[in-house]
Amino acid sequence: MPVHSLPPAARAFLGIDFGTSGARAAVIDEAGEILAQCRHDFHGAQSAALWRTVLFEMIGQIPFALRNMLRAIAIDATSATVLLCDAAGEALRPPLPYNDARATAEAAMLARLAPDSLATAPASGLAKLLWFQRQPEIEHARHFLHQADWLAFLLHGQAGVSDYHNALKTGADPQTLDYPAWIKQLPAATLLPRIVEPGTTIAPVSGRIAHYFALPRDCLVRAGTTDSIAAFLAAGASQPGEAVSSLGSTLVLKLLSGNRVESAQHGVYSHRFGHLWLAGGASNSGGAVLRMFFDDAELQEISRHIDASQPSGLDYYPLPEPGERFPVNDPFYTPRLTPRPDDKPRFLHGLLEGIARIETQGYRLLQELGATPLTAVLSAGGGAHNAAFAAIRARLLGVPVRAASHAEAAYGSALLARDGARLLYSHHAR
User: Fold this and answer.
1) Each residue of 287-308: pLDDT tens digit?
2) How far apart are CA 33 and CA 43, in angstroms?
């Protein structure tokens, strides 16, 4: 719908996605139709200053008429990407990204306290908080925030609030919306954000933000979610047994399940999802390793020469560097990328097949641990558009594989902005 044809009383909703490779924004109307979109691709190192600039630039790119009709905003971002902030919400050190595993000593200490907790992994938010605690800036710290928390704070001005999706790997209990007693006893626990349900209204945008961007003063900022769960919301899965594979820089699996399954040993965890659970895990394999060898144009062109009905004959475990989270949980896991044939289609075939095997192994593991059996997979992210990859995955998974209703996580966050927490309860238990 063209912007100029919108009725005066029209309501619009903004979803913003900060992923590993870039940021996206989507504006939808009450019917879920997309009114505007924009994007920013990241190149090189990321920083809090960059995120702030990109956030404000993308809001500024939304047409004035739409900005003036925004009723709510929700932001998703990469889980376990965290910042240490002062009382004013300014970052005291560079953020630690989701895959930063430097906190090995801290993770070992946490594992002695609670060996079955997700928060005991070296890349967990809680392990990173304890690593921050040993840095000199800690004396000025007042808030420990996840990336989505901090970005939302820039809009509403109230630091110290997180959603139970982003806070899961920091040790939050999604059933109680609180941290367990053993975490509360840690000296750094005073820096942890309070936990709310995704989609909960935190506050209206601040007066400064409303004035600068010509937003309504009553435009709400809602608690967000992680990028992979936003992609799940966008995809359109609605029944237990349906899953969404987010095929971006990394491979993230989410299976809608009637049962909660957890296994720190395997990097498996379940996010609360209304009355159901999203069982899943995140592999370090994915598009990042493909881009070590091919650009996007090459990936599309070379893929046309792959016979996806036949195995490649190569046994790869594609990782950009040592270390894996799921379905193998080993920070020192070694990539397998040899032998490398001179034939480019065969090499790419082997890489895609290796990623598909990891996906298959991941869903098989979830079912072995008690999740609802897999019935269909929806594909989101950049890899969802590769026909050869989809055919390879369908052959290995043994269930229908189809493209998601909407592929962008920003669309899922826009739905969360529109519907609030009730969106999580619109999926159906059998």
Assistant:
1) 999 999 999 999 999 999 999 9
2) 30
